[in-house]
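Good morning N.,

You mentioned wanting to compare the apo and holo forms, so I went ahead and generated the holo version with pyridoxal-5'-phosphate. This is what I fed in:
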Amino acid sequence: MKYPIIDLRSDTVTKPTPEMLTAMMEAEVGDDVYKEDPTVNKLEHYAAELFDMDEALYFPTGSMANQAAIKLHTQPAEQLICDKWAHVYNYEGGGVSFNSGVSCKLVDGNRGMITAEQVQENINPPDFYHSPLTTLVCLENTTNKGGGACYDFEEIKRIRKVCDENGLGLHLDGARLMNAIAAKKEDPNAYGKIFDTLTVCLSKGLGAPMGTVLIGKKELMQNAMRVRKVLGGGMRQVGFMAAAGLFGLKNHVNRMGEDHHRATELAKKLEEQSYVLKVEPTETNIVIFYLQQSHRENEFLQFFEERGVRMSAMGQGKLRMVTHYDYTGDMHARVLELLENFE
Ligand SMILES: *Cc1c(COP(=O)(O)O)cnc(C)c1O
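and this is what came out, ligand included:
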């Protein structure tokens, strides 16, 4: 028997819903390089308003948006501070050095999150010219490799204070920021007040086929179009895609609780299994767990693959499942059952 594929590798695997497709088909478009695409303009306006920030700019990918932000904040030979698991450091192809000529000071944080004290300790003394000049702090919320962990907002405020005292910029890689906001019932405005720039992926839990918005303060954003152009990210009638992003931002945040609930149930089921060593705390839509015998990783993945269930290996014995809107109640019931069947 052939099973339907249940894809838990990432929340990027979703396909547009019929309603989203309609919004895409009906989008009014123009040449966005001339800033004449009304739908892209609408999305950018909506995103900036949502976070109560000055400006937003649509990018094809989250990596490009983060890389542009880093470029806007820094000069070559400077250094940014981030967690050792940060996406900007690990999963953007070395772009920090390639695009900006900047190095990363890696902090040994907790599930991808760092503290104000750690930021303070990792700032190079500005008058010590042997060391790179520290100019930027990059946070991630939720954390990807950290299993969808969410920052305590009070900690973010403390980090902002350290940045202010030391003249550092503060960027948020908010690929899954809407998951954090939904899970902790936070106000997007609060993020807009604290960060100089932030990115939000439209192609993860929000379900659009592509796109990320970079949102920020005017002083920084005035050069953003130029940097996007340099990186090859100027696009034409891309309003068809922006319409999907706008639709997701407006309609899919409220349903994220469902993804989070299912992730919690997966985590609970895993905890009950004797073959599981440890499950990371599950706060949003990412479940990270370790097998009792790490050498059985391939066997485990294959057991599920043969039954149509896909998940990802993250190295160091880590396995990951990510819930999303194409993961239905029926699929969930089946995965819960299969988790009991492996031994
Ligand atoms: C997915 C992701 C990004 C952006 O990735 P792209 O594939 O380039 O869109 C950035 N940061 C984090 C934490 C992510 O999970």
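Residues 61-63, 66, 87, 140, 144, 173, 175, 201, 212 surround pyridoxal-5'-phosphate (CB under 6 Å).

Happy to go through it together on a call whenever suits you.

Best,
F.
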